[in-house]
Amino acid sequence: MEEEFYYIGIDNGTTGSITILDNYCKIIYHDAVPTIQTINYTKKIKYITRINFKKLVEILSSYSGKSRAITERPAINPKFMNTSILAARSFEILITALEYVGIGYEVIDSKEWQKAILGNAHGKDLKFIADEKAKQLFQIDVKKGFGDSILIAYYLFQKVKGNLETKRDKNENNA
C-alpha cells in the first residue's frame, strides 16, 4: 500500500484558495484561504482583510510531515504599492504557517504551472480558463477564481509523480 502523502496547491492572498490532493489525485480539501477583518493601521478607522493565521495553521497541521506545498510568488509592482504590500503580507503569513506546521514548500512563478497545465493560454481570461480546466479534470463545480489552487495542486502531483518536465528541470539536466 502506498504511503499517505498530500499535495497542497495554494493560490495565495486574501481572495485565494487552498486545494489538497491525496495520493490518488482526489480532492480532499478545497476552500478559500481563511481570512479575518481587522482595523487598518491608518488615522481614519478602516477595515482590512487579512489571512487568519490561526485558522490556516488548523487547516494545514493535519498534513504536517506527510505533504508538500506549492504557492506562487506574490505580485509585487511599484506602480501598485498598496496591492503589493498586501500581497507581500499574505505571502509572509502563508510561508510562516507552512514552516510553523512543518510542511515543505516551493515558491514558483505562476507561468510555470500555467504553461505545464494550460499550455499556451494567456491574457486576462486565465482565471476563467483555469476554472474551466479544473472543472474538466476533476468533474466538479468550481467557484469563480478558485480553479488556480486546484491546478497548482494538480501540477505538484504530476511533477512529484514524474509526469511533467519543468523548465527548471530542463535547465538542471543541461547544466
Describe this structure in words.
By secondary structure, this protein is an alpha/beta fold. The protein has one domain (6-162): Nucleotidyltransferase, domain 5, CATH 3.30.420.10. It is 42% helix and 22% strand. It is built from 6 helices and 7 strands, in the order βββββαβαβαααα. The chain has helices at residues 53-61, 81-101, 110-118, 126-138, 147-160, 167-174; strands at residues 6-11, 17-21, 27-32, 35-39, 47-51, 67-72, 104-108. It has a 5-stranded mixed beta sheet with strand order 3-2-1-6-7. Strand 1 (6-11) and strand 2 form a beta hairpin. Helix 1 (53-61) packs parallel to helix 2 (81-101), helix 3 (110-118) crosses helix 5 (147-160) and helix 4 packs across helix 5 (147-160). The model has no long low-confidence stretch (mean pLDDT 88).
Question: What's this entry about, in short?
Answer:
The chain has 175 residues and is an alpha/beta fold. The protein has helices spanning 53-61, 81-101, 110-118, 126-138, 147-160, 167-174, and strands at residues 6-11, 17-21, 27-32, 35-39, 47-51, 67-72, 104-108. It is built from 6 helices and 7 strands; from the N terminus they run E-E-E-E-E-H-E-H-E-H-H-H-H.
